[in-house]
Amino acid sequence: MFAVIFGRPGCPYCVRAKQVAEQLTETRDDFKFRYVDIQAEGISKADLEKTVGKPVNTVPQIFLDQEHIGGCTEFEAHAKENLGLYA
């Protein structure tokens, strides 16, 4: 399973999503992730909207195996329900 997290510096939800992904990497052999700093990469919310397929108001925006999961709250809930995350 591969996650891509689109986030920005200073965002507490982005930090939390990255922590969840790091925890999953440590506890699962089949989980990897990439964190994309949208400011450093020059990615705008409009660019993210094209990828997500709907309006984007917040970050992080998270994809699992190219499927849009949502933000940090949705990612954490998905990880607890389906990936064995113990937070």
User: Assembly state here?
Assistant: single chain
Average pLDDT level: 94
Question: What Rg, in angstroms, do the CA atoms define?
Answer: 12 Å
Which strands sit side by side, in order, in the main sheet? Answer: 2-1-3-4
Q: How is the biggest beta sheet arranged?
A: 4 strands, mixed
What are the salient characteristics of this protein?
87 residues, alpha+beta, four-stranded mixed sheet, globular
Would you kindly provide a written description of the structure presented here, covering whatever features stand out?
This protein is an alpha+beta fold. It has a domain at 15-65 and 77-81. 45% of the residues lie in helices and 23% in strands. The protein has helices at 12-27, 38-41, 45-52, 72-82, and strands at 2-7, 32-37, 61-64, 67-70. A 4-stranded mixed sheet has the order 2-1-3-4. The protein starts with a strand and ends in a 5-residue tail after the last helix.
